Amino acid sequence: MDEPDGTLIGFGGAVVRSVEELPEPAGEGAACFFGVDSELCRRFGSSNEGAAVFIRSASARMRPWTRRERPGAIDVGVLRGSASEMMEETLLLGAGLVARGFVPVAVGCDHTVSYAHALGVCRERRATYVYLDAHLDLGLHDDRQQPALHNGNFIGALVRSGRFEQVVNVGARAWTTHDEVYEAQTHVTILRSASLDALAFLRGRDVYVSLDVDVLDPTFVPNLCCREPFGFTPRELLSVMEWLRRHCHVLGADVSELAPDAQHGHTAEIAMRCIHELIGPRGGPS
């Protein structure tokens, strides 16, 4: 999508710029989006190759809202290549954008993109990793058979890295999360509801926020890669993101696990609106 003057518009209505052309961040909390358009390490869920381009195209029409509410948002393009190349480039790009004063947001396919991006964004700063996800992604059931990093165990790898002061899940509800093997683990703080009161202990913290779109109920977002019933409504998710923006210092973020579907382009707008709500001036208006 482009403006009448030829300006290209991308993720969530953000203006497209090359990394070399990036301006100074426009105030506190300027989001800088980039896509990772191939799956990195999928083991669970249906394939969603091309999800970043789908989200970019479907959410560009948000531009009238973004121009007014998040004028500093930038889109620097979509990464393509082998999984190993994109893992490295994601880490380096996130670290570079933080150094330049932006809040980088990776828009990926499988949730493993969060592993590389979070390590890059938080390379120089310990933070709390907060992920909204119907699954815990700890890999406790099958890591002996599948020790390699994938979208079902990368949280365990983040915990073991020692790079984050705390790992917090919001919204775990898959039936396996109630299995004894998960109930016994103590490495992740689990908030199963969208209660804002339960978030109070995060007030004032530096946070990295990861959105696996399957935290939402499939009634609202049918094109999920791993559907789970009884999820959040878009309004509940928006409220959680708003609370985190108002009360925490958001260093970076990512969004993943939305499948391309031309009949459900509005779901990309739901995801990007929630990410926009996360990033902006602390205590500022929506």
From TrEMBL:
Q: Which domain of life is it from?
A: Bacteria
The biological processes this protein is annotated with in GO are: putrescine biosynthetic process from arginine, via agmatine
Q: Please indicate if the UniProt record lists Hydrolase as a keyword.
A: yes
Q: Name one GO molecular function term.
A: metal ion binding
What InterPro entries does this protein's entry cite?
A: Ureohydrolase, Ureohydrolase_dom_sf
**Record-stated family:** Belongs to the arginase family.
Q: What is this protein called?
A: Agmatinase
Q: Which organism is it from?
A: Cystobacter fuscus (strain ATCC 25194 / DSM 2262 / NBRC 100088 / M29)
